[in-house]
Amino acid sequence: MTVNSTKVWIFILISSLTLLILGYEIGERLGLFIGFLCAVGLNFFVFFYGESQILNSLHAKQIKGQDAWGLEEILEKYSAHLGIEAPDLYLVPSETETAFCVNHLWRRGSLAITTGLLKSFHKEDLEAVLAYQLCSLNKLDSFMVGVTSTLANALVGLGLLLDHFWPPNYFLLKGQKQKPFLRLFTPIGWGLIKLANGHKRFYQNDLQAAELIHDRFRLAEVLWRLEGLAQTQPLRPPPCSSHLFIVNPEGYRQKLLFKSHPSIEVRLQKLMGYYPI
To answer: Model pTM?
Structure first.
């Protein structure tokens, strides 16, 4: 069992025990039973819905037998080199040039790229992007961050639901409605993500991907270009999910407190040993 998968199970165990303890403290036996049902429901949601959540929200469509770009061939080649099963490939209808991947323990992972990426990048650069995503899948860290992303999304959803029933909002216009619970739960969600999603994993994936394609400079150039494109044409992913992407897809929209990626300057310094490239 890898270190990352161990972290996943510890994280799920702690969250389940927390629900059981809270349930017992609130309602003793009945509360314990309700806490148990919540823990079962939460784990079911994480394992069977977490992956499809971000794919569905971005209207991703699986590529099957219509791969004019030769992407599946690239995935098969590098997956065989890493000793993993090639992931399902999805296409996201967006002009933003980016990519992300998600994983599950019970089935093969999924790798998604945007139509904008296919239009702007040639095959060698696409290889670098796909190699990075495969390295993320290889270490199972995409499952770990996917779990925390799902839990964080659940918190954000709970905040939105509670805000809907916030009494003052019944007397306010749409643009004036208050969001106290969303403001409370969003930082907590990002705190969960930061605990499980350290910057170290980005540096490790960068180095492994560079070794996989035998070209550090090409990967560094691709990362630099993706970062710049995200600043000019950002993508708005579901709440608490930007850490699943190869670079921060939100560009300047993302506040410093909720920063999901290390700075591109630090990543390139770690990858190349010097900056600028």
So the answer is: 0.79
